[in-house]
Amino acid sequence: MVSVPNPVLKAVFFLHLFLSVWPLLEFWAPSAYLYYNLLFLLMLLWGIHHKESEEPIFMALVINIASILLDIIVLALRFPPTFTFCAGMCIFNLILRPVTSIYLLRLFNERGGRYADLGIPSFAGVGAVGGTRGQYDDIDQPTTQSVPKTGIDTGSPGHGFAGDGTGLPPPYGHGYSQP
């Protein structure tokens, strides 16, 4: 049996390919409909080709979310009275786009993208897998580092320190004691 890598992403590509081509069978949709759907399909192809990169998936996600609004505008302004099959396929494509967006968001996270950094909130468990940012380190404030106490005497005269028990070096002009 042949194993197809990325079968769901390829199914998304072919489904949106057919649902983008069928509305263009007649000349009711503006040419912008062709262009933004073509850009979306190219981003999906790029994501299929680069299996580890999250960038094409994020670009496809952004274009797909923008396409939801653009499809609504196209249908509101140019709904045809006679080409109902073409308009029906456009409506079906519009209904499928939010499901595709959720899948692309999950795939973006699986490929190493962090949508928590983008300010996208968790929706119905979609964002539950993503990581959070680490603790903020203020580099303007000096940090105190605790050093554990050891049994080693570092203030002994053998190390060049004064033997008076203060642990300080001798005053200037006095010679250091050698072991």
TrEMBL record:
Location of the region described as Disordered in the Swiss-Prot/TrEMBL record: 135-179
- Compositional bias (Gly residues): 157-166
Q: How does it sit in the membrane?
A: Multi-pass membrane protein
GO annotation (BP), single: angiotensin-activated signaling pathway
Keyword list, A-Z: Membrane, Transmembrane, Transmembrane helix
Q: State the compartments where it is located.
A: Membrane
Which stretches are transmembrane? Answer: 7-25, 31-48, 57-76, 82-105
Q: Name one GO cellular component term.
A: plasma membrane
**PANTHER family referenced in this protein's UniProt entry, alphabetically:** TYPE-1 ANGIOTENSIN II RECEPTOR-ASSOCIATED PROTEIN
| Protein name (record) | Angiotensin ii
Source organism of the structure: Ornithodoros erraticus
